Amino acid sequence: MQTSLDEFDYIVVGAGPAGCLLANRLSANPQHRVLLLEAGGRDNYAWIHIPVGYLFCIGNPRTDWCFKTEAQPGLQGRALSYPRGKVLGGCSSINGMIYMRGQAGDYDGWAADGNPGWSWNEVLPLFKKSENHFAGDSQYHGAAGEWRIERQRLSWPILDAFQRAAEQSGIASIEDFNQGDNEGCGYFQVNQKAGIRWNAAKAFLKPIRQRPNLTVLTGVEVDRVQLDKGRASAVSARWQGQAKIFKARKEIVLCAGAVGSPGILQRSGIGPRPLLQRLGIGIAHELPGVGGNLQDHLQLRMIYKLQNARTLNQIAGSLWGKMGMGLRYLYDRSGPLSMAPSQLGAFARSGPEQTSANLEYHVQPLSLERFGEPLHAFPAFTASVCDLRPQSRGRIEIRSADPQEAPLIQPNYLSHPEDLRVAADAIRLTRRIVSAPALQAFKPVEYLPGDSLQSEEELHEAAARIGTTIFHPVGTCRMGNDTDAVVDAELRVHGIPGLRIADASIMPRITSGNTCSPTLMIAEKAAQLILNPDTRSIAPPKELVTHP
């Protein structure tokens, strides 16, 4: 038997970065009754807040959905772990804390494809609105917002040497990756406050927890959206072991991410007809693109053994080293425990034919065989490089109507020939950087994939062997105005009044960098569109497919 709670004006599904920000903005008007639903738990696990604690959060069912991809033909048949946040704050509670917007061209490209309002000049004020930037207010940054951005609290000689080597290889040093052109090498800015992770729950929910018009419920697994005469009117969910109906007077906004949002739509009978028919789900509204267009950044983890260098491998490899790290963090919230997973970044072009940086490096003073395993016993660093604009496309589909069954995740990594070509060029560029004079005092030796691999075919094989996700899935509810688009430029689901999506799933193409803060910008845009109708500049959404 289902029971009904009182109606709300707005229901936000998913308390990741987008959901936390949107709930904050919508509830700022005391006349709006807002419900925020999160399937995971509270963010009261200590390792969420200590930056290095991502090691204990990813792969932990307390904080991570622990999804797996299908076996990937392009990765020698390997299935990858696919972490997604399962806690208040979502992925901002378990990610690498890197503050990155991407490139101006990303957003200008969205707008040029028929999505008015999404150009760089139009979204820059939205980025600035939520920022609390350490450098204060400026042309490119804001200081009055909630999303704290700071410099990292430590540096490493080996990373400083890599930066000099990059400069010797033609990649100039850069102070700020977030002014529209991120080409260059420098230390990442991070979402931390005084050496503690700054997740979206702290930023956008904790300061407003006393608002009487905002209800936040955890442990609520949303099954589907209910339609009333074609309009989204309620969500069906399970909470505390009971079936619940949560009704919305005005709008429902899905913020469940690139994995969760298409799954909710598909279980609601909104999606590709063949999938819904195969699973025996009634077709409420056919939208062929739901779950398609999956994009992700595939990182190639190149590891170099070193001499004459002190890296985290040695420090964390001894009891005294671990004690020293703990004491230093207790003293002033610095040292290795305050580390983001990657400290130094670089954006570069894989070849002269590229018009802007199409590679991103995450450089780390550590190495390990694979995530979740111990650090190597020898000193080493990792230069992880990813193709920022992959051509491969995948899909996410539910396997059944049961919301507790993990979805099918098929990224199709390296399935496009261009991605293989860029991967080979990325390995060659990394080798040029590491062979530059600035690093020679450390006598680097390529441990992974191994410098005996030289031909184009061998480098393709190397990419397939060492490639792994860097956790940036997007695009599965794509914004646009064609028959495969899921939402329009105002984030309204085509053909379903009262329903929007505001998360990374709406990206037509992946941004040129880490995806957390662009997702916050998307939510800021959604709030603007919902609360300020005069900002709208396009016609009402059209019915792309007739209701069956």
TrEMBL record:
Domain of life the protein comes from:
Bacteria
- Example GO molecular function: flavin adenine dinucleotide binding
Q: Which PROSITE patterns match?
A: GMC_OXRED_2
Query: Is Phosphoprotein tagged as a keyword?
Result: no
Q: Which residue range or ranges hold the Glucose-methanol-choline oxidoreductase N-terminal domain? A: 257-271
Keywords (alphabetical) are:
FAD, Flavoprotein, Oxidoreductase
Return the similarity comment: Belongs to the GMC oxidoreductase family.
Stored PANTHER family = CHOLINE DEHYDROGENASE, MITOCHONDRIAL, GLUCOSE-METHANOL-CHOLINE GMC OXIDOREDUCTASE
Protein's name according to its UniProt entry: Choline dehydrogenase
